[in-house]
Structures
1.
Amino acid sequence: MFLDVENPSLVEIHKAADYIFHVAEIAGWDHVGVDLDFDGTDNVPIDLEPKLATDEQIWKFAGENILRVWTEVESYSQVLKSAGEKPTEEIWLGRKWTREDLSMPFMFHDTKGN
């Protein structure tokens, strides 16, 4: 994993790139991408280039995969809507919102919250 649990403020982009390539080797380039809250997204492909990622792989990673997934999710939501399913927020009465498990490692130390 590219996280340095002992020194979370010392995370380097090349470690993230190594992790991305590891996941791509296992799952394939159709299944890797940047999360929406990833800081520095504009700089990600630059560090992938020395690893010899193809332009197609970088395009998938930098946005095409998430757009494909969103399209599939939207299509499935239309299937559910046609079947009479209601959105979760309309049927989940009495729910209580809780914070995430902040004991888990985060990519950047400052994103851990208060």
2.
Amino acid sequence: MGPHWGAAAGTSAVCGRNTKRNCPLLCFTLSLVFARCARMSHHHQLQLQRFELKYIVSPQTALQVRQFVQSYLELDEYGADKPDGSYAIHSLYLDSDRLSFFWHTINGNKNRFKLRLRFYNADPHAPVFFEIKRREADIIRKQRAAVRRDVAASLLVGQLPHADDLWKPDAKSLACLHEFCQLMQQFEARPTARVSYLREAWVSPESDDLRVTIDRQVRCWPQTTEELRTETPDVPLVFGEKPVVEIKFTCRYPDWLRDMVHALGMTRGSAAKYVDGIQVFGQTHFVRQPGGFTERRHPHERMDALHR
């Protein structure tokens, strides 16, 4: 912010000598500063607002990514004490009987969202995160509320949310939980699929503006109950043995990461765990109404739709 305020101050001094010519410039400069502050304030109202770039890579390339990023980033605290630096992530995705959210991605809707519950272990005292993940053009916005595990199932079957349902009550989390439940009711979304994988995460030691993750052993299977279990069945790997590298950043894409992607010959693509998981496992196992196939699109059209 320093350079912006400095420019404004300099303009103010000139403005004293030539008010008619320079005051509009001062007002314009200050308006840019205040607009930036407003955007930053809006960013903090949501838990995350960032860009995500995804790459499906070979196991060897994933190791090269690790070697490269460890010079700039540090291992996430949740994986730091693990032998392989990875921790398990479990997600329960909600969708309508006709798989509305699935088809929004397949059809390349510019503004779309997903509803999911995320948890990391089977500890009955650990929270479950109710998440709304939105994509608005190329921007990712994620809201999450930490909820007590013992009330999660009741909320999924229609119980009205209350502050006492939160793991640590606060206004922002309660607003997120209310919105989650409202969208769930509006779209008649119910538990549809479970996704699990191992995540190796590298984070900036200075801020949460940059994160590089390597996801392995991605699995997806049908689940229509509210159970939050960590057991993973022996189902096909969504991306085979290939890890998924995700680069997540706010505002600016670091030059050193751009150099890494170029040097390793990484190609950006789509890697939607829920959507790709349904396609790998078979859509017929997830759709609860035959009408869910009315918008069916040939698989080769999907990539073009996602990048429209």
3.
Amino acid sequence: MDNVIGGSRASGARVNDILANDIPANDIPASDTQGDWPVLKPVRTGIRGRCPRCGQGHLFHGFLTLRDGCEVCGLSYAFADPADGPAFFVQCFGCVPVVIFALVLQVQADPPFWVHLVTSLPLALVTCVLPLRPLKGWLTCSQYFFKAGEGRLASD
């Protein structure tokens, strides 16, 4: 617990109990939700779909819908706006190779249409749908970690 947000070390058993999830979410006082929290890596919390502040609460309600806030630490997810970032990465790293595979298969073997239905289509679905949730979680947690916000012009 050497690294904490706010520059000071987290002390006391209260934060440790919250992080260990020994305290129900509704028993956490408001002062604890605003206190120092350990710095958690966005990759670890985001891919698992956990809260970027405490690492315990859930990030998603359903498959891709962000919750309003963390049920453990009370962090509001109103800051989160991954927009179409996850879809962009999935298209670049998932869809493009599958389309290339389907085109090469078609040019080299000229198979009937049903072969694409049992090879290319399932491959496209797996490479497009499965990475969306971890990528959205990672981008959301990265926004919290790096304090990302809308671009603003410096006032003169």
4.
Amino acid sequence: MIDNVTEELYNELEPKTFFNKILVTAEEIIANSTSPRRKIKRPWNQYMIFKKNFSKLIKNTNIPWKGNMKSVTRVSGHIWSKASKKEKESFCILAQKARRLHKKKHPDFFYAPINRKFQELFIHYNGPSSSSSPNANSESEQQDDISSVQVQQEQRQEQEQQEREQQEQREQREQQFNNQQIPQPIPQPIPQPIPQPMPEPVQLPPQFVLDFPYINEHQNYEVYSPELYFPECLQNLYFYPNYC
């Protein structure tokens, strides 16, 4: 049903008109924030300003429900929820300006929302007050309360969406860090001794052939063959004088 209503609305006005053409001012909003017989009203948020501007835009059209605030609130809330942050930016700036003017005009103002459950419980036990009637709040103020709740829900949803995106980014960074291969130190080869060529066996002359075993002091083993290497014997031919 809401889609049919918005389609009927778009036949009268272009969608970009609702965000580009602003007919309300911050001074006008502050002028309507007080009443001689009522308490000070709270400053309007960006959606409430958009709804006021929306109702002014459709005032001179042929839309049949332009005077029904319930339909205006429902359609304006639907359009506002589909709008982007860039489209809402002008109304956010206007709401900030109106809030500053409201603070300057009413420096001691403090907004305290009414606890509906406590109020209903009080009326249940004590009965309705003689000075108040069930129609004390106008329909427009009730719609303003509903619209403010819708805006708060949208802000809460945007905040939750941002928190989810931040959580996903943190998980992605952690996953990338865990997937990175930490460079391991390359083990260095153990130095191996350079192999030395074995000396060729030396054939001793017959006069140097020993008839008894010779004890090698360095290797500590007995030598029986004259073909082994004996440096001292080769350096000094008269090492064994009895055989020379």
